[in-house]
Amino acid sequence: MASEKVVTLTDGNFRSTVLEADKPVLVDFWAAWCGPCKMIAPVIDELANDFDGKAIIGKVNVDDNRQTASEYGIMSIPTLLLFKNGQVVDKAVGFKAKADLAKLINSHL
């Protein structure tokens, strides 16, 4: 079950939700057909709950939002980009453990 705390990001809301955010934003670029994306989805949900109020956790479906995926050069999924003050400050490609992603987020809080 997806967490209601995970923000659905689109080409239309990416700028206002991610680039203009006042806290770090972890963005999961994913697709419905991607096996590793399905594996990491529960981790993303847990992170959204764990970091509620401290960081924003969002997901971009690359099939539905090609402009944003292209703009950030997403070639493999899942790709997770961490934004702070509108800039990419960290990146992880492929399935990552929850502890690794939590450490990545914490290092930018």
Automatic annotation (TrEMBL):
One function term, GO molecular function aspect: protein-disulfide reductase activity
SUPFAM superfamilies assigned to the protein according to its UniProt record, in alphabetical order: Thioredoxin-like
Residues marked Deprotonates C-terminal active site Cys (site): 28
Biological process terms in GO annotation: cell redox homeostasis
PROSITE patterns: THIOREDOXIN_1, THIOREDOXIN_2
Residues of the site described as Contributes to redox potential value: 35-36
Residue stretches making up the Thioredoxin domain: 1-109
GO cellular component: cytosol
Cysteine pairings via disulfide bonds: 34-37
A Pfam entry, by short name: Thioredoxin
Keywords tagged on the record: Disulfide bond, Electron transport, Redox-active center, Transport
Recorded superkingdom: Bacteria
Active site residues per record: 34 (nucleophile), 37 (nucleophile)
InterPro entries from the UniProt entry: Thioredoxin, Thioredoxin-like_sf, Thioredoxin_CS, Thioredoxin_domain
Family annotation (NCBIfam families): thioredoxin (TIGR01068)
Stated family: Belongs to the thioredoxin family.
Protein name (Swiss-Prot/TrEMBL): Thioredoxin
Organism of derivation: Heliorestis convoluta
